[in-house]
Amino acid sequence: xxxxxxxxxxxxxxNSIIYGALKNVADEKGFEVVNYGMYxxxxxxxxxxxxxxxLAATLLNSGAADFVVTGCGTGEGAMLALNSFxxxxxxxxxxxxxxxxxxxxxxxxxxxxxxxxxxxxxGDLNLQYIFEKLWSEPSGGGYPKERKEPExxxxxxxDQVRKTAYRPLADILKELDPSLVKGAYAGEHFDEYFxxxxxxxxxxxxxxxxx
Length: 211
Description:
Elements: E1 2-5, H1 15-29, E2 32-35, H2 49-62, E3 67-72, H3 76-82, E4 90-92, H4 96-106, E5 110-114, H5 123-134, H6 148-165, H7 169-175, H8 178-184, H9 190-197, H10 201-210
Parallel strand pairs: 1-2, 1-3, 3-5, 4-5
């Protein structure tokens, strides 16, 4: 599994802490972590949490990433931004229990973490515990386990509702403010990582056009 890490501008200074905790767990699981930044608060390319949503949706829908870890000060804005796009199911995760139940019950492909609210002493350890519980078992296994079948059935219903409710990502990207989209793709290593890893050639071509 390839996991993308995205930080918006208010919490960019924590990127190395988040990346370290995430990579510790990913390495044990045999997962790959791709750090899309922001890397520091002073990065030339400044991402807002809304642009996190654009970037995350592009990575997930193109196949450049299988999972996205992101957040903001409270985690709420990033979660709402990501869930505004097709192909993304993002949970708001504050604790290891949140991470476990989201993975097992909701079987999503992204999480938004509050990197300021409640992030005090031991914050780095809480992050590592979150990532450990997030991938402690295969996703979608149900919790409690006797609820597996109805929860998997509900997830299929949700997927169908979202498929009906959302337009194709390409159509959305074309109608957004061009400067907003360009800013989402302006990260220092975006071109290197995205065009290397993305599998959807039509979406890759559109991204080249919109950049």
